[in-house]
Amino acid sequence: MAKDKSNTLAELKTNAGRLLHRYKEATDERNRLEIRLKAVDAELANARSRIKELESEIQGMKVAMVVSGSDSASDISEYQKRLSKMVREIDNCIALLNNS
After folding, report:
1. Per-residue pLDDT, 69
2. Tens of pLDDT along 7-49?
3. Sign of the dihedral through C-alpha 92, 94, 95, 100
4. In sequence order, what are the residues at sequence separation of 6 or more whose Cβ sits closer than 8 angstroms to the Cβ of residue 50?
5. Cα 23 from Cα 28, distance rounded (Å)
6. Cα(first)–Cα(last) distance of the chain, in Å?
7. What are residue 58's phi and psi, to 5 degrees?
C-alpha cells in the first residue's frame, strides 16, 4: 500500500516535471513567434511605405509627361519600362511578405 502511494507520488512528480517542461517550451515558442510577428509587421510597413513612394513617383511621372507634352513613342516606351520595373518591385515586396 505504501509502495503504491510512493509509486503514484513518483509518477505525479514525473508528470508535473514534464508538464512544466512543455509549458516552458510553449512559452518560449510563443515569445519567438511574437518577435517574428513584430519583424513581419515591420517588413509589411516598409513595403507599404515603398508602395506609396512608388505610387507617388508614378503620379509625378504622369504629371511631368502631361506638362512636358511628351507623348512620343520613345518617351512612352521609357515610362512603360520604368512603370513595369516599379510594379515588379512591388510584386517582389508582396511575395517576400507572403513567404515570411
Report:
1. 64
2. 888 899 999 999 999 999 999 999 999 999 999 999 999 999 9
3. positive
4. 89, 90, 93
5. 9
6. 57
7. -60, -45
- Can you read off the three cell numbers belonging to residue 63? 504629371
The whole-angstrom distance between residue 43's C-alpha and the CA centroid of its chain comes to 5
Distances (CA, A) of 93 to 19, 49, 53, 100: 42, 11, 13, 11
C-alpha cell at 71: 507623348
Confidence (pTM): 0.54
Euclidean distance between CA atoms 62 and 76, whole angstroms: 10
CA angle (83, 84, 86) in 5-degree steps: 65
CA distance 80 to 9: 76
33, three cell numbers:
513567434
User: How far, rounded to the nearest angstrom, does the alpha carbon of residue 32 sit from its chain's CA centroid?
Assistant: 15
